[in-house]
C-alpha cells in the first residue's frame, strides 16, 4: 500500500529513508507537474531548489527529472538556496512556480517538499488539496526524463539565483549606512542556507559581522533543530555576549525565518520582532499599507493599525493563508508567530534575510540598541506584551479533541475573564486584558500547540497551563 502523502501548512515533510524516499518525492513531483499541466503551464519553467539537509541536492535533481518528463522546463539552483531567494527567482525568471526541497526548521532526520506559485508565494489551501489528489499511488505512474538527457536537451538548466536576488535587495534598502554604522553584528545561520549573506551584504565598511554555524552539517550540532527559538539559539546568544555584539540575527535552516537576540544576549520573541518591523515601516520609514497577521501573532499589530490608520487582516496559521491575503490587499507587511515576515516590494514569501536587514536599519536610523527599540514600541502600543507557547503530543482524533475543547467552555483562563472565542484556526480565547490564548493542531507534526499573549507577565504560565487543561492534556 503506497504512502498517503498529505500537505500541511507548508507542503509535505517526512522522515528521511522512512517515508521521505526518492520514490515518494517523485510521486509528489508528479502530482505538482499534473497540477501545473492542468493549469495550462506545459512548456513553461519551474524553479527547483534545495537546502543543506542530507541528500537534498539529489532529491531536487529527482524532482527536476519528473518535471522535465512531464513537458515542463526546469531552472535548477546551482547550490543550496534560501527559500526567499527561490521565491524571488520564480518572479525574476518569469516561471510558473517552484519546488523547494527543504524541511525548514524540522530536526535533521526530516526533509520536505515545498511548492510555490507564479508569484513566489505559498499555494493556497485549495491548490494544495488539488496537488494532493493528483499524486499517483505508485511510482510506476511517474513520468521521468533522465537527468543528463534533460540537461543536454535544455529542459533542465542550472542557474545562479543569488546575484539577481542581492541586486533586488538594493532596491528595497540602502545598505551603505548599515556598512558605515560600526555595529558588531552576530549572525547564527543554524548550519543552513542563510550562511554568507549578511557578511557579504554588509562587507566593506566599519560594521563587523561575526557568523557562526555557517558550514553544511545536516545533523545540526549544538541545537535540537534549526528553529530560531530557545534553546536552539543559546550558543548564539552566548556568542553575542562574548563578542560584545550589538545584536544577534538568526536565520533558520532555509532562511525564511528570522530570530533576534538583543545586546544583552537575551532572545526577543517573534511577536515582539513583528511589532518592531511593523513600527519600522510605519513610523520610521513613513510607509502605509495593510498588515496581514495570523491569529497566533501579536495584538500589537492591531494597536499599530489603529494608530497609523491602516487595515489589519487576521488569517489562519501558515503562509498559504498569509500570502494570498497579501496579494489581495497589496499589504505592506505580512507575518506569523513562527518568525516569518514578508514585505511589499518583495515576493509574498517569508524572508529572514531582508527582515534581518530591516532590523539593522531600524537600529541605525534611530541610533538605538534592541532593548531601547522595544521600549519605544511598548510606549507606542500602550504596554509590554508577553508571549509563550507549549507544544504537546496528543493521541486520538482531531475531532474528538475539538469536542473536548468546546465542551470545556472556560469562563476564566489564568485568572483573566474570557471575553470571546474565535475558531478561524483552532480555538482562540480572547481575554479581558486584550490578550489571548490559542489552542491549535500543528499542520506539520502530530502535536497540539498552546499559545498566549498577555499584558501580565506573571500570568503567562498560568494561562498556558489552563490551556493544556482545556485541551485535556493536563
Describe the structure.
The chain is an alpha/beta fold. It has three domains: about 10-160, Alpha-D-Glucose-1,6-Bisphosphate, Chain A, domain 3, CATH 3.40.120; about 180-380, Alpha-D-Glucose-1,6-Bisphosphate, Chain A, domain 3, CATH 3.40.120.10; about 385-470, TATA-Binding Protein. The chain contains 16 helices and 21 strands. The protein has helices at about 20-40, 55-70, 85-90, 125-135, 145-150, 160-170, 175-180, 195-200, 235-240, 270-285, 300-310, 320-330, 350-365, 370-380, 400-410, 460-470, and strands spanning about 10-15, 45-50, 75, 100, 110-115, 155-160, 185-190, 210, 245-250, 260, 265-270, 290-295, 310-315, 335, 340-345, 385-395, 410-415, 415-420, 425-430, 435-440, 445-455. A six-stranded mixed β-sheet has the order 1-5-4-2-3-6, sandwiched between helices. A six-stranded antiparallel β-sheet has the order 16-21-20-19-18-17. A hairpin with a 5-residue loop joins strand 14 (about 335) and strand 15 (about 340-345). The model has no long low-confidence stretch (mean pLDDT about 95).
Q: What's a quick, concise take on this entry?
A:
This protein is an alpha/beta fold. The chain has 16 helices and 21 strands.
How are the strands of the largest sheet arranged? 1-5-4-2-3-6
CATH topology of the largest domain: Alpha-D-Glucose-1,6-Bisphosphate, Chain A, domain 3
Structure classification: alpha/beta
Radius of gyration: 22 Å
Choose one word for the global shape. Answer: globular
Largest sheet: 6 strands, mixed
The count of DSSP E runs of length 2 or more, i.e. the number of strands, is 21
Question: How many H/I helices?
Answer: 16
First and last CA, distance: 37 Å
* Strand residues, percent: 15-25%
Mean pLDDT: 96
CATH superfamily of the largest domain: Alpha-D-Glucose-1,6-Bisphosphate, subunit A, domain 3
CATH classification, class level of the largest domain:
Alpha Beta
Named at the architecture level, the CATH assignment of the largest domain is 3-Layer(aba) Sandwich
Number of domains: 3
Uncertain segments are none
Amino acid at each position: 500500500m503506497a504512502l498517503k502523502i498529505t500537505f500541511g501548512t507548508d507542503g509535505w515533510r517526512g522522515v528521511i529513508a522512512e517515508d521521505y524516499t526518492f520514490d515518494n518525492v517523485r510521486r509528489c513531483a508528479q502530482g505538482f507537474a499534473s497540477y501545473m499541466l492542468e493549469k495550462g503551464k506545459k512548456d513553461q519553467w519551474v524553479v527547483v531548489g534545495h537546502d543543506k539537509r542530507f541528500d537534498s541536492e539529489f532529491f531536487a535533481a529527482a524532482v527536476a527529472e519528473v518535471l522535465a518528463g512531464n513537458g515542463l522546463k526546469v531552472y535548477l539552483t546551482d547550490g543550496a538556496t534560501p527559500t526567499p531567494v527561490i521565491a524571488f527567482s520564480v518572479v525574476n525568471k518569469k516561471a510558473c512556480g517552484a519546488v523547494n526541497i527543504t524541511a525548514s526548521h524540522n530536526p535533521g532526520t526530516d526533509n520536505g517538499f515545498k511548492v510555490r506559485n507564479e508569484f513566489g508565494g505559498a499555494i493556497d489551501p485549495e491548490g494544495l488539496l488539488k496537488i494532493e489528489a493528483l499524486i499517483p499511488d505508485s511510482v510506476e505512474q511517474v513520468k521521468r526524463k533522465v537527468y543528463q538527457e534533460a540537461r543536454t536537451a535544455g529542459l533542465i538548466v542550472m542557474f545562479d539565483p543569488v546575484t539577481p536576488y542581492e541586486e533586488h535587495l538594493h532596491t528595497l534598502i540602502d545598505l551603505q549606512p548599515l556598512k558605515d554604522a560600526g555595529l558588531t553584528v552576530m549572525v547564527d545561520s543554524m548550519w543552513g542556507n542563510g550562511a554568507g549573506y549578511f557578511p557579504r551584504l554588509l562587507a566593506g565598511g566599519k560594521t563587523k559581522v561575526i557568523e557562526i554555524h555557517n558550514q553544511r552539517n545536516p545533523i545540526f550540532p549544538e541545537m535540537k533543530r534549526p528553529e530560531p527559538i530557545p534553546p536552539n539559539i543559546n550558543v548564539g546568544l552566548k556568542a553575542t555576549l562574548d563578542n560584545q555584539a550589538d545584536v544577534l540575527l538568526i536565520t533558520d535552516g532555509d532562511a525564511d525565518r528570522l530570530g533576534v537576540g538583543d545586546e544583552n544576549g537575551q532572545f526577543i520573541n517573534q511577536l515582539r520582532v513583528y511589532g518592531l518591523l511593523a513600527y519600522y515601516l510605519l513610523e520610521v520609514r513613513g510607509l502605509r499599507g495593510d498588515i496581514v497577521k495570523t491569529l497566533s501573532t501579536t495584538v500589537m499589530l492591531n494597536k499599530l493599525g489603529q494608530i497609523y490608520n491602516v487595515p489589519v487582516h487576521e488569517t489562519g496559521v501558515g503562509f498559504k493563508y498569509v500570502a494570498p491575503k497579501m496579494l489581495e490587499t497589496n499589504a505592506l507587511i505580512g507575518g506569523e508567530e513562527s518568525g516569518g515576515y514578508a514585505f511589499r516590494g518583495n515576493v509574498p514569501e517569508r524572508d529572514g534575510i531582508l527582515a534581518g536587514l530591516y532590523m539593522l536599519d531600524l537600529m541605525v536610523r534611530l541610533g538605538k540598541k534592541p532593548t531601547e527599540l522595544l521600549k519605544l514600541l511598548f510606549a507606542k502600543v500602550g504596554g509590554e506584551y508577553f508571549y509563550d507557547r507549549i507544544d504537546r503530543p496528543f493521541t486520538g482524533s482531531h475531532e474528538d479533541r475539538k469536542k473536548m475543547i468546546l465542551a470545556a467552555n472556560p469562563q476564566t483562563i489564568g485568572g483573566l475573564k474570557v471575553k470571546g472565542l474565535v475558531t478561524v484556526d483552532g480555538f482562540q480565547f480572547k481575554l479581558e486584558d486584550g490578550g489571548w490564548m490559542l489552542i491549535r493542531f500543528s499542520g506539520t507534526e502530530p502535536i497540539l500547540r498552546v499559545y498566549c499573549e498577555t499584558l501580565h507577565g506573571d500570568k503567562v504560565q498560568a494561562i498556558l497551563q489552563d490551556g493544556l487543561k482545556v485541551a485535556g492534556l493536563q
